[in-house]
Amino acid sequence: MEAPSFAYSASSSSLFSLRKKPLSSPRFSRFGNTKQRNFSVRASSSGDSVVTLLDYGAGNVRSVRNAIRFLGFEIKDVQTPQDILNASRLVFPGVGAFAAAMEVLSKTGMDEALCSYIEKDRPFLGICLGLQLLFESSEENGPVKGLGLVPGTVGRFDSSNGFRVPHIGWNALQITKDSGILDDVGNHHVYFVHSYRAMPSDDNNEWISSTCDYGDKFISSIRRGNVHAVQFHPEKSGDVGLSILRRFLNPKSNMTKKPGEGNASKLAKRVIACLDVRANDKGDLVVTKGDQYDVREHTKENEVRNLGKPVDLAGQYYKDGADEVSFLNITGFRDFPLGDLPMLQVLQYTSENVFVPLTVGGGIRDFTDSTGRYYSSLEVASEYFRSGADKISIGSDAVYAAEEYIRTGVKTGKTSLEQISRVYGNQAVVVSIDPRRVYVKDPNDVKLKTIRVSNPGPNGEEYAWYQCTVNGGREGRPIGAYELAKAVEELGAGEILLNCIDCDGQGKGFDVDLIKLISDAVSIPVIASSGAGVPAHFSEVFSKTNASAALAAGIFHRKEVPIQSVKEHLLKEGIEVRI
């Protein structure tokens, strides 16, 4: 994962806590370099069950830790350059910005140690940015020099050809040579989330173990000897990803569970399970579901609708084949999210056994608690990331930011959307839009974007605009979904979760008019939400719009439609999905 810049403190176990004398970046050519090294490399004596982890404090590394532990290995965190050199196997799950990562590695002496370790052909696995840093340079806020071990420059995807950037989702690999760790991938999808990539060339061809097609062919993994690196996220790629990690951590192991046959040929459409989470009247955290955002039963007791326990349901949806799991803290708009320890614990416990991407939303904004202590939206988001979230979803705060941006035309850099995307990358920031239809007889009656709707309004109106709301749909704002989507893309959103209050809980299908309007207007991925009732609703939204994913909640919670049934239907309709 890449981000425009990184300037945030990390835990004491991260490289940010180290204070070493800065070293100049060496110049390297392939495995060789022109600098004398005084490092000694020896294998760790701490046993075959120990994995050394290079965590420099950016983003969600909890998922990698959980995957390693799930596979039965212990973790030793890098504290000094010598810890790298002593490692028997080293995993570098790079997240954040290329330049910031190189600065940290250089200042702490980790760049020298990494190059010495890799040049000695020690077991190494780089993930995402951990692959990109091995190259000579990156165009991300650059050019910025990399470690120089692999020839080539890391550049941004070209969105001018209609492909959405960031590249988010499950894509296929074209394996080009024996890579060892990819032996069980076959025709399976793996999970990518990035805006920058390295391109194949004659100079780096001998390194490439697989490529991926997304607008053009880019490098998805490299291998030389015991040195491996992947652009995708094995810790978020389900059973296939776990098999990749297992083969790296223990190459001689006999695989007890291998992934079944796959059908991957290109980027798949995603099916996402959403869990609306809130405390019930007894104080227990439950999954609920609204009917046009009303989550209470229409009974004498008027209790909160209880559809299950969040961690258990998330685990079940992972087993059922959900491509992502999204948690929405639906009372977060009025509560202080960092005071909501149960929600943080839900993320922590879920990420221990769910190895697909996790998104969390609700209440991500600046906040002052009852003691007068101020928390920035960045601090709130960072706590979610540290607890296991891969992406955070911003709702009401993004509406206010977009309104101000449209009014002034100025990016202040201070909004929650800008701060979080600047630190963690736009691929980690989802904007959730909650609009409702407003019918008009004449599109000239309003200054906002209107469309001709498929189904006329109650008085025969043929046109409508979509009014954005805040505070859980309770308050309408003078901004349309179209205007909001365009603004938040410019402010740093990497994905849009597009709801529709009119369709919520109705089971009559997604609002195709709305989803087509927004997915045609932006170049970032759009997730269709609200209204799914049968599998055919998913194929309809994918065939009639440019949505990258479709999300459902109630039909999954009530077991009316299994996730696998949705995917089987999509396959029959010729729509690529992960199986």
Automatic annotation (TrEMBL):
<feature type="binding site" description="covalent">
    <location>
        <position position="128"/>
    </location>
    <ligand>
        <name>L-glutamine</name>
    </ligand>
</feature>
<dbReference type="InterPro" id="IPR050064">
    <property type="entry name" value="IGPS_HisA/HisF"/>
</dbReference>
<dbReference type="GO" id="GO:0000107">
    <property type="term" value="F:imidazoleglycerol-phosphate synthase activity"/>
</dbReference>
<keyword id="KW-0368">Histidine biosynthesis</keyword>
<feature type="region of interest" description="PRFAR binding">
    <location>
        <begin position="530"/>
        <end position="531"/>
    </location>
</feature>
<keyword id="KW-0456">Lyase</keyword>
<feature type="active site" description="For GATase activity">
    <location>
        <position position="235"/>
    </location>
</feature>
<dbReference type="GO" id="GO:0004359">
    <property type="term" value="F:glutaminase activity"/>
</dbReference>
<feature type="region of interest" description="PRFAR binding">
    <location>
        <begin position="395"/>
        <end position="396"/>
    </location>
</feature>
<dbReference type="InterPro" id="IPR017926">
    <property type="entry name" value="GATASE"/>
</dbReference>
<dbReference type="InterPro" id="IPR006062">
    <property type="entry name" value="His_biosynth"/>
</dbReference>
<feature type="domain" description="Glutamine amidotransferase">
    <location>
        <begin position="53"/>
        <end position="248"/>
    </location>
</feature>
<comment type="similarity">
    <text>In the C-terminal section; belongs to the HisA/HisF family.</text>
</comment>
<dbReference type="GO" id="GO:0009507">
    <property type="term" value="C:chloroplast"/>
</dbReference>
<dbReference type="InterPro" id="IPR004651">
    <property type="entry name" value="HisF"/>
</dbReference>
<dbReference type="InterPro" id="IPR014640">
    <property type="entry name" value="IGPS_HisHF"/>
</dbReference>
<feature type="active site">
    <location>
        <position position="434"/>
    </location>
</feature>
<protein>
    <recommendedName>
        <fullName>Imidazole glycerol phosphate synthase hisHF</fullName>
        <ecNumber>3.5.1.2</ecNumber>
    </recommendedName>
</protein>
<dbReference type="InterPro" id="IPR029062">
    <property type="entry name" value="Class_I_gatase-like"/>
</dbReference>
<feature type="active site" description="For GATase activity">
    <location>
        <position position="128"/>
    </location>
</feature>
<feature type="binding site">
    <location>
        <position position="363"/>
    </location>
    <ligand>
        <name>substrate</name>
    </ligand>
</feature>
<keyword id="KW-0028">Amino-acid biosynthesis</keyword>
<comment type="pathway">
    <text>Amino-acid biosynthesis; L-histidine biosynthesis; L-histidine from 5-phospho-alpha-D-ribose 1-diphosphate: step 5/9.</text>
</comment>
<dbReference type="GO" id="GO:0000105">
    <property type="term" value="P:L-histidine biosynthetic process"/>
</dbReference>
<feature type="active site">
    <location>
        <position position="276"/>
    </location>
</feature>
<comment type="similarity">
    <text>Belongs to the HisA/HisF family.</text>
</comment>
<dbReference type="Pfam" id="PF00977">
    <property type="entry name" value="His_biosynth"/>
</dbReference>
<dbReference type="InterPro" id="IPR011060">
    <property type="entry name" value="RibuloseP-bd_barrel"/>
</dbReference>
<keyword id="KW-0378">Hydrolase</keyword>
<feature type="region of interest" description="PRFAR binding">
    <location>
        <begin position="504"/>
        <end position="505"/>
    </location>
</feature>
<dbReference type="InterPro" id="IPR013785">
    <property type="entry name" value="Aldolase_TIM"/>
</dbReference>
<keyword id="KW-0934">Plastid</keyword>
<feature type="binding site">
    <location>
        <position position="499"/>
    </location>
    <ligand>
        <name>substrate</name>
    </ligand>
</feature>
<keyword id="KW-0150">Chloroplast</keyword>
<keyword id="KW-0511">Multifunctional enzyme</keyword>
<feature type="active site" description="For GATase activity">
    <location>
        <position position="233"/>
    </location>
</feature>
<dbReference type="Pfam" id="PF00117">
    <property type="entry name" value="GATase"/>
</dbReference>
<dbReference type="GO" id="GO:0016829">
    <property type="term" value="F:lyase activity"/>
</dbReference>
<feature type="region of interest" description="PRFAR binding">
    <location>
        <begin position="432"/>
        <end position="434"/>
    </location>
</feature>
<keyword id="KW-0315">Glutamine amidotransferase</keyword>
<comment type="function">
    <text>IGPS catalyzes the conversion of PRFAR and glutamine to IGP, AICAR and glutamate. The glutaminase domain produces the ammonia necessary for the cyclase domain to produce IGP and AICAR from PRFAR. The ammonia is channeled to the active site of the cyclase domain.</text>
</comment>
<dbReference type="InterPro" id="IPR010139">
    <property type="entry name" value="Imidazole-glycPsynth_HisH"/>
</dbReference>
